[in-house]
Amino acid sequence: MANYRDRRVGQEILREINDILRKRVRDPRVQDITITDVRVTGDLQQATIYYSLLSDLASDQQKAQEGLDKAKGLIRKELGQRLTLYKTPELIFEKDESVAYGNHIDELIRKLNQNQD
């Protein structure tokens, strides 16, 4: 029998962190961040949170990462109050590269189609 608890907890964390970022975190560096995915380990001790940013500038991405790292304590505290877990998972924020990868693939396909015409 498969255990889906880690995925359910991940979906709940995703929903709650998006809400916390919108309503509780006042840092302007994290205003344009969207949480795209959450991966929770099987023992629910760590959660890797993937985020995307509207800006492609490296300076904006660095500022967003710094803002998330600074707000990590507040986000974890809020999660602990909202979730009914024995222990709140340790949060790790990583930039979601799948959006940029998808854009790169689209660009390659577009160039391929232009060369055939």
TrEMBL record:
Keywords, ordered alphabetically: Cytoplasm, Ribosome biogenesis
Subcellular location: Cytoplasm
SUPFAM superfamilies: Ribosome-binding factor A, RbfA
Function: One of several proteins that assist in the late maturation steps of the functional core of the 30S ribosomal subunit. Associates with free 30S ribosomal subunits (but not with 30S subunits that are part of 70S ribosomes or polysomes). Required for efficient processing of 16S rRNA. May interact with the 5'-terminal helix region of 16S rRNA.
UniProt record similarity statement: Belongs to the RbfA family.
Record's subunit section: Monomer. Binds 30S ribosomal subunits, but not 50S ribosomal subunits or 70S ribosomes.
NCBIfam families: rbfA (TIGR00082)
Protein's recorded name: Ribosome-binding factor A
The species this protein was found in: Enterococcus larvae
